[in-house]
Design a protein that fits this description.
309 residues, alpha+beta, ten-stranded antiparallel sheet, two-stranded antiparallel sheet
């Protein structure tokens, strides 16, 4: 091998060694293996904390509802027996379509507040039961009040004189006792009417079917079951199709589903028997009307509320 070739080889080796030495400088590449510094808001594992949703501090409290998958504000309001506008107002929702799973919503108004529907709320107190005599006066002393002829609604004067002389008088035929509160009709319960003239093809079943199903032809009239105000008219509640919801009092709502055409709009006042929609098959497999009566948000059997046909 010539000396010139040896010199060239040696020079090349020196150049390679010089290049290796210069490669010890670090390249400007981010070291991703190094963990990011943990901030005060981060957990010990370096992960960001879970998002705290609005109203979380009220979860489980009476008058509040935790949003579940598939919920809409309209459905939540219907189940609570309220209007969606009231629920939106109580929770400061600028866009009622933007609610999140896990969010806790107020579904009962603060005490003393007037709702959008004009109903003023008051604290719920247990009624005080006071014993009274038949003449509607508070008993005096420790003994029961003496029963007089006037106390039982005008017994004959002879009977009164007989009682005064110590004779035993037959008990007068008084009116039957008033029904208990649980049996009496609610003070604000509407005077119901039938919402459709077709036959009932589906009955109420607790926890399964929330109302009555009426058959009919497309375009048949759907009528308001009682005087009220339209609190919803649209198709935003899955499974109900074109839906009308009427509010009749602080406790009672009615719902009319699967309509072909809606003839009313929100906030409109309607009268019992007024045509509010036309029967259809939206969100249903046949033409029908699904009708619900809800008391305090809970479905009740319309067959027990409606008059005989």
């Amino acid at each position: 091998m010539s000396s010139s070739f040896r010199l060239a080889a040696a020079a090349a080796a020196l150049l390679v060694l010089a290049g290796c030495a210069s490669s010890n400088r670090r390249a400007p590449v981010e070291d991703r293996a190094k963990p990011a510094p943990v901030t005060g808001a981060s957990s010990a594992s370096g992960q960001a904390p879970a998002k705290v949703l609005p109203g979380a501090e009220n979860a489980g409290k009476p008058g509040y509802y935790t949003v579940k998958p598939g919920d809409t504000l309209i459905r939540i309001a219907l189940e609570a027996g309220k209007t969606w506008r009231d629920v939106a107002a109580w929770n400061g929702l600028d866009n009622p379509n933007l609610i999140e799973v896990g969010q806790v919503l107020r579904v009962a108004p603060p005490v003393g507040e007037t709702t959008a529907s004009g109903v003023s709320t008051k604290p719920v107190t247990s009624p005080k039961i006071e014993a009274r005599g038949l003449d509607n006066k508070t008993p005096a002393g420790k003994g029961a009040p003496a029963t007089t002829a006037s106390a039982v609604g005008g017994a004959p004067s002879g009977a009164a004189s007989g009682a005064a002389s110590g004779a035993t008088a037959a008990p007068p035929s008084a009116a039957p006792p008033a029904a208990s509160t649980s049996e009496a009709k609610d003070v604000d319960e509407p005077n119901w009417g039938w919402p459709a003239s077709g036959p009932v093809i589906g009955g109420f079943e607790e926890g399964k079917h929330k109302g009555l199903t009426f058959s009919g032809k497309a375009g048949d009239p759907v009528q308001a079951s009682a005087d009220g105000r339209v609190v919803y008219a649209g198709s935003g509640l899955r499974g109900y199709g074109n839906l009308v919801i009427l509010k009749h009092s602080s406790d009672f709502l009615t719902a009319y589903a699967h309509n072909q055409t809606l003839l009313v709009k929100e906030d409109q006042v309607v009268r019992k028997g007024q045509k509010i929609a036309e029967m259809g098959s939206t969100d249903a497999d046949r033409v029908q009307l699904h009708f619900e009566i809800r008391k305090g948000g809970k479905p009740v059997d319309p067959a027990k509320q409606l008059p005989s046909r």
